[in-house]
Amino acid sequence: MFLFENKPASRFQDAHLLGNGRLGATVYGGVPCEEILVNDDTLWSGDGRYCPPGDFYDNLIKSRTQLLNGELVEANSTVNDRLAGAWGEAYMPLCSVYALFGTGSDYRNREFH
Question: Can you give the chain as a three-state secondary structure string?
Fold first, then answer.
């Protein structure tokens, strides 16, 4: 099996994502210079602490009651507004790997993006 595109991806959203759940790669499809972003699930920004709001458990019960009563929009709002806590982490790339294709001995004259 293979994937074929007419042109390289110019945005992250258009690139092909590969991985096994722990290790991943983002492939843009550039020729002759390809940049592959490599991710590992242990690499995050932030301090790793989750600080729930003081009324977390009261709002958890409230959201469960709303769900059981069929109030799906209200339950979703309660979860998003009252249970999420502060945003403290973001998934970070481990490294960029550059691969050159068909360049022969001319690799020194290629530009990396």
Answer: CCCCCCCCCCCHHHCEEEECCCEEEEECCCCCEEEEEEEECCCECCCCCCCCCCCHHHHHHHHHHHHHCCCHHHHHHHHHHHHCCCCCCCECCCEEEEEECCCCCCHHHCCCC
Amino acid sitting at position 12 = F
Spell out the residues 6+ positions from residue 41 whose beta carbon is closer than 8 angstroms to its own: 21, 22, 23, 24
pTM: 0.53
Task: State pLDDT tens for residues 10-24.
Answer: 898 899 999 998 889
Q: With a cut of 70, which residues of the chain have pLDDT below it?
A: 46-50, 85-90, 102-113
